[in-house]
Each structure stands twice: as C-alpha cells, then as structure tokens.
Amino acid sequence: MALRANELQAELGKVHLMGVGGVGVSAVARLLLDYGLEVSGTDAKDLPVLEGLRQRGARIEIGYDAANLGDAETVVISSIIKPGNPEYDEAVRRGLKILHRSEGLEATMRGHEKIVTIAGTHGKTTTTSLTAHMLKAVGARPSFAVGANIPSLGTNAELGEGGYFVAEADESDASFLNYRPDVIIVTNVEADHLDHYGTEEAVHQAFVDFARLLPEDGLLICCADDPGANELARKMRHERSDLRVQTYGFSDHADRRLSQAQATEDGRFSALVEWGSGQSYTLDLAVPGQHNLLNATAALSVGIDAGLDVDEALKALASFSGAARRFEFKGNVGDVRVYDDYAHHPTEVLAALSAGRTVAGEGHLHVVFQPHLFSRTKEFYREFAKALSLADSVAVLEIYPAREEPIEGVTSELIASRVEVPSHVLSPAGAVAHIVEQAEPGDVVMTIGAGDVTALGPQIVASLS
C-alpha cells in the first residue's frame, strides 16, 4: 500500500475531520492515519473514541473554532456539519477541498483488488462485521470500515495488507452512491429515512442506482426473504446480463437456502445452509436470531466468492462475538440478563425482540424503547407498537430528536397507547425503576433505540445489583 499512500498524500494532503467523534468519521480518520497522513479533527464533545485517535498522533480539539483547521488542505465532514459552523465556513472561505464522510472513505478504498460494500435498511452493520471478521480470521488481512466498534476486530476501521476492502454502505442520505464496489450485499430494502427521500419509491430507486454501479462481472448478493431486496435481484438479473446475482435466505427459491434454524442447548444458534446439488453445511453462530443466520449467510457468500475453504469460513463465522449495540450483553444480575440493541426501525425492533424472546425462553421479556426521530415515529408508530407487543412489558421513552425539530402531535404516546401488552411512557429514571420492579430470575431486559437509551443498560445492571 506504500504507492497508494503516496497517491493519497498527494491527493488530500493534511486532512481535518469535523464531527470526528462519530463512528463513521472516526473510521475515516483511523484509515487515513493507517496510510500515514497528517490528521486533525474536532468534535463538540470529548468522546472516548477521541483519546484513541490522539494516541495514534491525530491533533484533536473539542469545540468548533476556525483556528482548529490549522494548515489543513482537505476537510472531511459528517452529515450534521452545515453552513454556520465556524470551521466549515472557514474551509469554504479558504477554498479548501471539502469531502463528505463517504467521499473520504471512498478515497481510502481505491487501489484495493476487491471492494465489498454492505447496504440495507437494517442489518448492514452486523453483516459488514461478520464479513470482515471472517476474512480476518482466515488470514486474508482485509481493510474494513464498520458503523460500530467490533470487539473481535478491536476497532471499527483498519487498513489491512490484503486485497479486500469491506465497508458498510449507508443509504440514509444516498451517500452510498459515492462508492465504486465490486461486490454488493443488500440485506433488505424498506421505507426509511423518508425525511431525505420523501417516498418509499425513491428509497428503492436509490438501491437500484447503487446496484448499477457494479462493474461487468460484479457480484450482487440479495436477501431472498425480503421483498425489496428480492425485487432488486430480479430487476438486476433482467437489466444486467453481465452481472452475477445471488440470493440467500429461508425462501425455497434462494440460491443459498437456510433451513432447520434452531437455538442449541449451549445458547448458540444454528441452521443448515445448502446450495447447488447436494452441498449442505451447518452454520453455527454465537449471536442470536434468524436475522443473524441470514447476515452470516450473506457473509459466507462473499467468502465463497473469495475462494475461501467453506469449512474454514464457517469456523470463522462461528467465532464472531457480535458488534457494539447489536444485541450486546450488558450484564447478568440474579439471573436477569440485560442486553442493548441499536434497532430503530420496526423491522429491526421485531428482529431484536424475536431474538430476545428466544433467549428468554420461559422467562419474561422487558423492553425499554426510545423512538428515534419525530418523522420516523410519525411514519411507523403503528408498526413500532405491533413489534413491541412481542414483549411482556414495555417502557417507552420520549422521542430522541437527533437532527429534527418536533412535529405537532407526534409523541411517544402514539406508540405506547397501541402496544398490546402493559406499556407506559416513562422518564429514563422511571424506566430503570420500572425494570427493577418487574424483572425476575430468568427474565431478559432489552434497551432498544438509536439514541441515548444505550446509557440505561449499565444503570439497570447497577440498580438490579
């Protein structure tokens, strides 16, 4: 990669990253540091991830100020950085090169033999993690960038010495169209991020446009069980005879078919996966849920295309311990197990609760859910209520606004009032107290959402103690 590092240095020079504490921008910072570039960055808060970047040699500042740009030649920004930010405005005034996070990531991808991108309304972080973990475990030394910290990988991004680059491709603002992949996995295509796209049809069209970026003999891997991803596979087979298109899932028509999914006595999850004529293998995982069996099958398809020994690839997948905030175990107190999950779309919530229900067995499932975005709550409050009804008790926090202003009439009560099991809108402190009162030995507690609900898991563990 020495030649590529010289090219990247010539192209970007000194790089300053705004919003560098975010998981996506910090991944770009780590990769640039791996290439040997001079890196600086700013964030509004002093987050734990920043200390790791400082130790790697990055100059990190807290609080935005035009002086923080120093002598930067290129600026990389997250999606939340807008005009009015003093550093952004100074970069514009100076005429510096300004790249979106996805463009910065794309620059680090170039020069690799094969670029694998994983997209989907949900499931992409875990599938990216599984794919990178599998390739690293078999000695392929991949480069990767994932939207979460991965315990088995030790980081969310790394420049490897091998020819593969595995990256999570974010569809939320259509920035995945900035990549130039050789292989695409699409886990699912559903209506989401309508604050950006406007309509469900526009979401589906963005995935079509993404698949069209594949070169001749590129590989498109789609989940046959998801109507949107399955339709994408059908469309691209019809449109591009030069593409290789594969599907996976429990559906009979899937190219790689899953069957006999079950939870084993030792807490693992397994299924049979077969393809072609008579090729059948056992897929065994430490992470729960049928959705993760699907994610692992997608990763396995990349491994097979890369020429890995199937048994070695399966062994590598079996050793995957999970991604941060994806059914992440937080503690066990008095046989009450506490997990945290990033799910923030109804389909994700249903998958997470289905896994939680399996883990709970004969015990009860208690959930603390934090809706994410007013627009998403307005669009999907009925679907959220239906998914949450799989639990035995539900505490709903107030909506986490993120980048949005409130919408009149859109509150957490829209969800809580429609959940078919005992459900209440509570404060964070009230939710913790509710869990402590409700939970009994053998029960499972889950904190779910993309906002600061994640902080409640350790509080619940401490309170149960």
From TrEMBL:
SUPFAM superfamilies: MurCD N-terminal domain, MurD-like peptide ligases, catalytic domain, MurD-like peptide ligases, peptide-binding domain. This is UDP-N-acetylmuramate--L-alanine ligase. GO terms for cellular component: cytoplasm. HAMAP family: MurC (MF_00046). GO terms for molecular function: ATP binding; UDP-N-acetylmuramate-L-alanine ligase activity. It catalyses: UDP-N-acetyl-alpha-D-muramate + L-alanine + ATP = UDP-N-acetyl-alpha-D-muramoyl-L-alanine + ADP + phosphate + H(+). Keywords: ATP-binding, Cell cycle, Cell division, Cell shape, Cell wall biogenesis/degradation, Cytoplasm, Ligase, Nucleotide-binding, Peptidoglycan synthesis. Cell wall formation. Its EC number is 6.3.2.8. Residues 14-111 form the Mur ligase N-terminal catalytic domain. It is found in: Cytoplasm. GO terms for biological process: cell division; cell wall organization; peptidoglycan biosynthetic process; regulation of cell shape. Belongs to the MurCDEF family. Pathway: Cell wall biogenesis; peptidoglycan biosynthesis. The gene is murC. The keyword NADP does not apply. It comes from the Bacteria. Residues 325-451 form the Mur ligase C-terminal domain. The keyword RNA-binding does not apply. ATP binds at G120, T121, H122, G123, K124, T125, T126. Residues 118-302 form the Mur ligase central domain. InterPro entries: Mur-like_cat_sf, Mur_ligase_C, Mur_ligase_C_dom_sf, Mur_ligase_cen, Mur_ligase_N, MurCDEF_pg_biosynth, UDP-N-AcMur_Ala_ligase_MurC.
